Amino acid sequence: MYQQMKYFIAVVEHHSFTRAAADCNVSQSAISQQIKELESTIGVKLLNRQGRSFTLTPAGEYFYRRALEITKETTNLIDETVKIANQQNQFTLRLGYLTNFGAGEFLRAVAKFSQRYPDINVKINSGTHEQLFQLLRNDGIDLAFSDQRRALSNEYHNEFLTEANFMAVLPPNKVTQTKILTTDLADLPCILVVGSVQKDEEEKYYQDVLGIKSRFVVASTTDEAQMMVVANQGYFVVNNRTKDAVNQSIVKTVPLYNGNLMLYQKYYAYWKNDNSGYYIEKFAEILKQQFN
Fold first, then answer.
1. Model's pTM, two decimal places?
2. 14-56: per-residue pLDDT in tens?
3. Counting beta carbons within 10 angstroms of the beta carbon of residue 212, is it exposed (0 to 12), middle (13 to 18) or buried (19 or more)?
4. 270 DSSP β-pair partners
5. 57-88: string of b/e by CB count within 10 Å (b at 16+)?
């Protein structure tokens, strides 16, 4: 019926069996016979024939509109199917994940994806939020697993994965309550665990989004940051998904609030709308399953 729908569309758009037959590269008698078989199959008249001319019946008008949609969808389906088949032996899926989150869920997703699609090459990058964002924006990766630090853009598919509440890492003698406010920490330096290149970006995020009022200092690793904490040189921020990197026998974590609002971090899988495709979407689906 798909081919008969295409013939019917051609007849309606050309308003001529002769021109439609020429456009479809078949004889006029063949296309006329196909339209009759179409009407016989569905059991209604689509055309009111008047000599060499015709008009559409109400049913024919409806069938024409829906046939346009269906044939377009079918053509897209065929094109995407062929594209996937052609990609299978040459496609490389380029992925990026957030370094300080931990790779557990991400690597399980990669393992499941590779088991399901063994012919697809997978290339993995890790980095900070800004490094992954730049890679994604400049087509260096196809999909990034990262935190949310800016407004979600319509240029990207933003697949929510999980969220985690922020916590301040403090010396044990500083923890006297079950939560702490950003204003309570204003006189204590906030330690950023970043390289010098990312310092300005991290400061802006901490100030504008988290509402941190402290001055900032830098540590290159979590271990260095913990040493600074136990030496009463400041505090740093983790969340309940990244706190495992903290040795809680020497430091303490306490939920961090901005006023009455508990601070949360959201995590997404991001990929460009104009770079979407079967394997990217399948990996995102598998990744999301790891958080459910």
1. 0.65
2. 887 778 778 887 887 887 887 888 888 888 888 888 777 788 8
3. buried
4. 144, 158
5. eeebeebbeebeeebeeeeeeeeeeeeeeebe
**Which amino acid is residue 11, in one-letter code?**
V
Q: What is the pLDDT of residues 179-236, one digit of tens each?
A: 999 999 999 999 998 866 678 888 888 998 889 989 999 998 888 999 999 999 999 9
- Where would I find the H helices in the chain? 2-14, 17-24, 28-42, 58-87, 104-116, 129-137, 199-205, 222-230, 278-291
Alpha-carbon distance of 44 to 47, in angstroms, equals 9
Q: Which two tokens stand for residue 150?
A: 């800016």
pLDDT given at position 89: 57
Residue type, 209: V
